[in-house]
Specification:
The complex is a heterodimer of chains A (about 650) and B (about 160). Chain A is α+β, with helices and mostly antiparallel strands and about 650 residues long. Among the domains of chain A are: about 1-55 and about 275-335, Alpha-Beta Plaits, CATH 3.30.70; about 150-220, 2-Layer Sandwich (Alpha-Beta Plaits), CATH 3.30.70.100; about 360-625, no CATH class. Chain A has 23 helices and 16 strands. In chain A, strands 2, 3, 4, 10, 11 and 12 form a six-stranded antiparallel sheet that branches. By secondary structure, chain B is an all-alpha fold. Chain B is elongated. Classes of the chains: A alpha+beta (about 650), B mainly alpha (about 160). At the A-B interface, helix 17, helix 22 and helix 23 of A face helix 3 and helix 5 of B.
């Protein structure tokens, strides 16, 4: 339950056995390499960085090929979707099985085959598109019954084909009125253009061209053998046979989709191989010996030693020592109970702890659970969550990460149900049950309850801060930074309570004394790191000013009440609308059911989203702000996250 | 009947109704603008990566809550509406509606802009897109505070 203890290792091994070693270590998986390039001193000693560019490039090329093939085949392969597929999930392999299977597959011929077919298909498709363009061009001239080659070879007069914008039609008739040796005809018109044929005697041709230029005439040159209609027909025929050929090729590719699972396996194998090859770039080397450094979890130390021994026999030197507590480079691996594990993603989202901090996950989890429930608070919604997550967890084959995420909501559903009963709310009160609170009227007690929760949350965070300080042997700091704040806050709260309710006068005096003692303590010690009397005092006063921050923190917890109420009221409003519609006969009743289902689903989504993020905010800002810094580096397991399979 | 008499007789229900209107329309306008801003940003993303639709929808939903808070307050005031209610009562209810109306309006727009920026986190670094959601939720805190106050005000004084 906490941060996993790490051991730092230094390993010297011959370069020749590098491949074997890395291969074995990848099976071991729990190893985090340090990049030694920026390690001071090594370069001065004449060590060189290990470089394996050829290795990486060749693996990368293979990866691109395989992923290209997968991409093509996926277009022709209908993946199973729906519940059945989710139940089945991805196949699970161990690393060894993956490697054995993947090495059996000869993927390069498959790639060549697919790639050739695809290229052929592409080029045919291009020619189809080209033909379509040609047909488009010829279409307006289909009225011409003369062969195109004949038109192009007329020498006795000037023959022009072209278009004129339709809006200039009047101008066109106007300019063409007074010609002697010219004939023109509008063959076809569409939305924008007129399609003209113009025949003119050579004597007049130049003048006509000028006139036509004035009406934005643009010349068209037709290509092909035969009349436009014949050309169109032959192009269409060509296209039809092309399209047939494409579908033949596609069928051929489709027949190869059986290879898809194999390729996917190879893809995941190759990504791991790439990681393995690239890992060597972290090392430094002399002429023959590699220097490798990194971390392994302390409880896996023996396993690690044995594996190294197995591979390298006697030709290595290995040194293991406890990881440095203060070193920021020590990687962080969290290990928690099954329950707290589900909340690890929240810690990770903020920042992993440093190696000398504590893992806040088990502490934030119970609060998260309680707060989430209070914001969602509905028996019906909770039951939906519970049933959905339960079914998914037990019936579906999921990857480890998805499972954790679903389990997170599985746990939360209980809290939502319990708070639902406290609020007396099932789907916003569709079935009346007696609750402990009536949210519509008891909002004041709910508000107070929220603030009290905030108080507990923040006091607990301060306690954690004290714990961390004491653990590090800074007992005085724990008193100054936590103890005095406890005094000041508690005193102030009790003193303020005096104003709203009657308490024994003695308590009032005591609280005042406690508060002042705490505040004096804060002023006296808050600036202890500053230099000089003035600096110390100023720092102290500034620390005390931090009390305004606490006021803000407490107020912030009012969202616990507000979101719970808002969700409840919206659900209630949906029910009200459904109820009004339901009174209008059988059709009304049907509509009411639709309104109910749609409205409640919408509100369910919104409520859960709101509860999820607002609880995160309370955790990150109000809770973490008191004691948690974070900023550790995550432990990078020596394995990639597979894309198409589950890797054990 | 003079104008003053008219106001005294019917002003109560008028101002209470105005309160409902203010709570609902101001926060509604804000949410609509906010959601619109995020929607525009998200559309640009979906052209390239349609598989991120689900996550972008979560971001788009965020500025929508203000409108709902206003709606809830409006609904609560609606429950107190009565043709013969006094002028002071009506004006008080109008005042109670102002916090969620105004804060809801402006905060939804601010939240929409933040969420739209969150879309670019989703575009470039999907793993961390939840952080964009959290930034955007920071804005909502103030709408929530206004909602709490409006809620308390609506029920605090009985006439």
């Amino acid at each position: 339950m906490a941060i996993v203890k790490m051991s730092e290792f230094s390993l010297f091994a011959f370069d020749s056995s590098k491949e074997k070693l890395l291969h074995e270590l990848q099976k071991f998986e729990y190893i985090h390499f340090l990049n030694l390039e920026d390690h001071i001193g090594f370069q001065d000693l004449g060590l060189k960085k290990v470089r394996v560019p050829e290795g990486i490039i060749s693996v990368e090329e293979d990866l691109t090929r395989v992923s290209h093939s997968i991409e093509i085949l996926s277009k022709f392969h209908k993946r199973e979707t729906g519940i059945a597929a989710m139940k089945k999930g991805l196949d699970t392999y161990t690393f060894q099985e993956l490697e054995d299977e993947a090495l059996k597959i000869d993927y390069l011929p498959i790639y060549d085959n697919i790639n050739n077919l695809w290229k052929k298909r592409d080029s045919i498709r291009q020619s189809v598109e080209k033909n379509k363009g040609k047909i488009q061009e010829l279409m307006p001239w289909s009225g011409l019954s003369t062969k195109i080659q004949d038109l192009n070879s007329i020498r006795a007069c000037e023959l022009l084909l072209g278009t004129v914008p339709k809006k200039l039609q009047d101008k066109l008739t106007d300019v063409m009125k007074e010609n002697q040796f010219t004939y023109y005809e509008v063959l076809e018109e569409d939305k924008d253009n007129l399609y003209l044929i113009v025949m003119s005697h050579h004597n007049e041709a130049e003048a006509i061209k000028d006139k036509l230029r004035n009406v934005s005439f643009s010349k068209v040159q037709l290509h092909g053998e035969g009349t436009p209609n014949e050309v169109i027909k032959s192009l269409e025929e060509e296209n039809n046979s092309n399209i047939e050929e494409i579908s033949m090729l596609e069928k051929e590719i489709e027949a190869m989709t059986d290879a898809l699972p194999k390729l996917e396996l190879v893809y995941d194998y190759l990504s791991n191989k790439k990681l393995r090859v690239a890992a060597a770039e972290n090392f430094m080397m002399t002429d023959k010996v590699n220097v490798i450094r990194g971390y392994v979890p302390t409880d896996k130390e023996e396993d690690f030693k044995n594996r190294v021994e197995d591979v390298l026999e006697n030709t290595y030197y290995l040194e293991l020592k406890e990881a440095d507590k203060e070193d920021i480079k020590t990687p962080i691996l969290l290990r928690n109970s099954k329950f707290a594990q589900s909340f690890e993603s929240l810690t990770g989202m903020y920042a992993l702890p440093r190696y000398n901090e504590i893992d806040p996950t088990p502490f934030l989890a119970p609060f998260y659970l309680a707060f989430f429930g209070m914001m969602a608070a509905d028996v019906g919604y909770g039951l939906i969550m519970l049933i959905a997550t339960f079914v998914v967890l037990n019936k579906f084959n999921l990857s480890e990460n998805t499972k954790k995420f679903i389990r997170f909501f599985y746990y939360l559903s209980f809290s939502v149900i319990i708070w639902g009963f406290l609020y007396g709310s099932i789907f916003g009160g569709i079935i009346p049950i007696p609750g402990l609170f009536d949210p519509a009227n008891d909002y004041n007690s709910l508000l107070i309850l929220s603030i009290v929760f905030g108080l507990i949350h923040i006091y607990f965070a301060l306690a954690l801060k004290a714990y961390v300080l004491i653990k590090d042997g800074k007992k005085k700091d724990a008193l100054f930074d936590v103890g005095f704040w406890y005094l000041a806050l508690t005193g102030a709260i009790v003193y303020l309570l005096n104003m709203v309710m009657v308490l024994p006068p003695l308590l009032k005096t005591i609280s005042l004394v406690v508060m002042i003692a705490g505040m004096v303590g804060i002023v006296a010690t808050g600036g202890r790191e500053a230099s000089g009397m003035v600096g110390k005092l100023g720092g102290g006063v500034y620390s005390l000013y931090g009390i305004s921050g606490y006021v803000g923190d407490f107020v912030s917890y009012s969202r616990l009440m507000a979101l719970g109420l808002a969700g409840g009221f919206i659900a209630g409003a949906v029910n009200m609308m459904a109820g009004m519609v339901a009174q209008n006969g059988i059709i009304g009743f049907l509509f009411a059911i639709i309104i109910f289902i749609f409205g409640q689903t919408f509100n369910l989504g919104l409520t859960l989203l709101g509860a999820y993020v607002h609880t995160i905010r309370l955790t990150f800002v109000e809770f973490f702000g008191k004691f948690y810094e974070g900023g550790g580096i995550g432990f990078k397991k020596f394995k990639t996250e597979p894309k198409y399979i589950n890797l054990k | 009947m003079s104008f003053t008499e008219f106001i005294v007789t019917y002003g109560g229900v008028f101002f209470a109704g105005l309160g409902i209107a203010v709570a609902v329309f101001l926060s509604g306008i804000g949410s609509a603008i906010g959601i619109g801003i995020v929607g525009q940003a998200a559309s640009g993303l979906i052209i390239e990566e349609p598989e991120k639709f689900g996550r972008s929808l979560v971001l788009q939903l965020l500025p929508g809550t203000q409108g709902l808070y206003g709606f809830v307050i409006g609904l609560l005031v609606l429950g107190q509406l009565d043709a013969g209610m006094g002028l002071a009562h009506g004006m008080y209810l109008l005042a109670a509606c102002l916090p969620i109306g105004f804060v809801g309006w402006q905060s939804a727009i601010a939240q929409g802009k933040t969420a739209a920026a969150g879309i670019s986190i989703l575009a470039k670094n999907e793993e961390h897109s939840t952080k964009g959601i959290i930034y955007s939720v920071m804005v909502e805190t103030y709408a929530l505070l206004a909602f709490v106050i409006s809620l308390i005000l609506v029920n605090a004084v009985s006439f």
